[in-house]
Design brief:
Length: 152
């Protein structure tokens, strides 16, 4: 039987009836059409589904939607504005840190969370900050350079 949950996603309040076994990733993608959050493995290994939940990154494929009841969620869709991409997103484009782009939303959300908490991370802290995100294309160096360019 569906259960009604309330949560805030990208500064918008939502009340939504969900099946008890649907994941947060599937709810975002299939119930709310927020398809920027990707699913690579569905088993917590790749980080493609990374979103920020109550100030911490989570693999949304491992979180049930009902566990997110009352939470504040940030997804990649929340980063851009009417003026365009966020500076962090622009940095990924400018540094060539994107190839197929499948991993990019998850990596950018991990990077955002890192920079929100620590505006001037060391190279090691950047590597650790995105260590839960796999990329098959770019070789990581340009990803690190894009994040480094956003240090304060
Ligand atoms: S889809 Fe969630 S970690 Fe891979
Ligand atoms: S850019 Fe293709 S998986 Fe990372």
């Amino acid at each position: 039987m569906k259960k009604i949950i309330s949560l805030t996603i990208n500064d918008q309040s939502h009340e939504i009836a969900v099946e008890p076994n649907i994941t947060l990733a599937d709810m975002l993608r299939y119930e709310l059409a927020l398809t920027g959050t990707k699913k690579g493995c569905d088993t917590g290994d790749c980080g493609a589904c990374t979103v920020i939940m109550d100030g911490d990154v989570v693999n949304s494929c491992l979180v049930l939607a009902i566990q997110a009841n009352g939470s504040v969620i940030e997804t990649i869709e929340g980063l851009s504005t009417d003026e365009g991409l966020s500076p962090l997103q622009e940095a990924f484009v400018e540094k060539g840190a994107i190839q197929c782009g499948f991993c990019s939303p998850g990596i950018i959300m991990s990077a955002k969370n890192l920079l929100d908490k620590n505006p001037n991370p060391t190279e090691d802290q950047i590597r650790e900050g995105v260590s839960g995100n796999l990329c098959r294309c770019t070789g990581y160096q340009k990803i690190f350079e894009a994040i480094e360019s956003q240090r304060s």
